[in-house]
Design brief:
The protein has 261 residues and is an alpha+beta fold. The protein folds into two domains: 49 residues, no CATH class; 201 residues, MucB/RseB, C-terminal domain (Phosphorylase Kinase, domain 1, 2-Layer Sandwich), CATH 3.30.200.100. The protein has a seven-stranded antiparallel β-sheet, sandwiched between helices. The two termini are 24 Å apart.
């Protein structure tokens, strides 16, 4: 679909989400009947929805892994301390539990879904737990604040044993605030925290896949305003997580992907 038609893109997103009125829907459907690009775009989104539904079927019946229960308990403790210290926007741990139970991202429930054994699975589990624990509660969650980008690059590269340079996302309205290193079953994972001018946070993780295969297609998952996108490339898995729209997350992921070539 032509990227120069932003109004049409917005209408297609609303059509796919079932948010158009009857007359609007009829008008756009009539237009799509004569436009193969529109039909291809909608068909692609429908296939993506089918794949996600198949990947997360039955996940609500699966138990939460111990790592995630520990992270939730830690988030509860942090929330109580933060509310005592200052008045701020609360993050309800119950909401985190609902999001996780609905299968926000492949990797929460090991062994229950074939999709959770994908190259993105293990890093995705750590990424979403880290976002819930570190990025969503307004506290500074970094081991290394951004004082020197070159120093952070050298530190992350040394800890991960491979070149890791934080991508610049200023064109997306995001600035890097700092970084930390997380554990995973495939080795250390770089956790990079970005923030926009309104204080909204986006977390980027980079880690080894533990597999030889590359799956460069973007994989989406999300519920109730929390979105995640994951892909693998060059033996690494990348995830981007934030409380933003899927389209916004797609643009951020594309910017990261372009800089990792």
């Amino acid at each position: 679909m032509d990227a120069a038609r932003p109004d049409l893109a917005a209408l297609l997103i609303r059509l796919h989400a079932g948010a158009l009125s009857g007359p609007e829907r009829a008008k756009l459907s009539e237009r799509g009947a004569n436009d193969p690009d529109i039909r291809a775009t909608l068909a692609g989104w429908a296939r993506q929805d089918d794949h996600l539904r198949a990947a997360y079927a039955g996940v609500l019946d699966a138990p939460l892994p111990q790592m995630l229960r520990d992270s939730i308990a830690a988030a509860r403790r942090d929330e109580r301390l933060r509310l005592r210290a200052r008045l701020a926007r609360p993050l309800r741990v119950a909401a985190i539990l609902v999001l996780l139970a609905l299968g926000v991202l492949a990797g929460f429930v090991a062994g229950r879904q074939s999709a959770l054994h994908s190259p993105a699975g293990s890093v995705a589990r750590d990424a979403i737990a880290a976002y819930a624990t570190y990025a969503a509660d307004g506290l500074p969650p970094v081991e290394r604040p951004l004082t020197d980008r070159a120093a952070i690059t050298a530190w992350l590269s040394d800890r991960l044993g491979l070149p890791v340079a934080p991508p610049g996302l200023t064109k997306a309205g995001l600035h890097l605030t700092g970084a930390r290193v997380l554990p995973s079953e495939n080795g250390p994972v770089a956790f990079l925290l970005y923030e926009d001018s309104a204080g909204h946070r986006i977390a980027l993780t980079i880690g080894r896949t533990g597999m030889d295969a590359d799956d460069t297609a973007f994989r989406f998952a999300g519920h109730d305003g929390v979105e995640n996108i994951a892909w693998t490339d060059g033996g690494l898995t990348f995830t981007v997580t934030g409380q933003t729209s899927q389209d916004a997350l797609r643009r951020i992921a594309a910017a990261v992907y372009a800089q990792m070539d």
